[in-house]
Every structure is written in structure tokens, then in C-alpha cells.
Amino acid sequence: MNRVQRLLIASTFSATLVVAVPVSADIAVVVNAGSGIERLTQSDVVNIFMGRYRKLPTGNVALPVDSTTLKARFYRALVNKDLAEINSYWARLVFSGEASPPQQIATIDDVHQLVTQNMNALSYVDGGQVPDDMHVVLMLSE
């Protein structure tokens, strides 16, 4: 095999690798479309999901919901922390009695069901897969 053939094979292999790498999408923080909440700042979302705020801008008690399938990506994008750091943070707060962590939901379908049935729930989904009956209040880039 000559040099040109080796370079051609190497460049074809490299192009295949680039195509095969999944592109991570943004994460959409969502609420019920009828909640009356149009937008939240990243600071608002941090405070709600980290247990510092208990209320939504509407004055209602917030029900933050973690999606176990996207949780690691969400907290990395939101506060630049990995799951071990988030779990440690919540262990301290729970032990001290200061707050309770967000409700844990296993599947995106369950997240969808809970958010669409509860005006005070907020959660997150893949930015490219937001259902019509949910309203995006913040987009987080990874």
C-alpha cells in the first residue's frame, strides 16, 4: 500500500469517526404550557433545583422534577457539577433538614405526564424533543 492510499484510508476513517460522534443537544427547562410562566433565568432555575427557592414567580410552590436519564447532563450544564457533587450537596441539606431534593422520575414519558398534569412542576428534556404541551422557560447549552 502506498502513501496516498494510506492517507486516503486514514482520512476516510477520520471522517467516519466525526460522523459517528453524537452531537449533544441543548437541554430545555420546561413547565406546563398553561402555567403562566413565560421565562426563568438560569439563576432562578439554579435556586429552584438546588433547594434555595421554594416558589415559582407565580407565587405557587415549585415542584422541581429530576429526569434520571438527563440528570448528569442537566446539572453539568446548570451548575457545572457532576452527580457525585450534586448527591453530596443534597445529602448535607437533607441531613440538616433544610430542604428536600427534586422528585426523581425515571423516564421522559413520566416527566411529561407529571409536568402536563401539574401547573407547579418544572423539569427538563432534550432541547430537540420538547412536546407541544410543555413550555420552554430556559435553554441550557452543554
From TrEMBL:
Signal peptide: 1-25
Keyword terms: Signal
Signal recorded as keyword: yes
Protein name: Phosphate ABC transporter substrate-binding protein
Species for this entry: Salinicola lusitanus
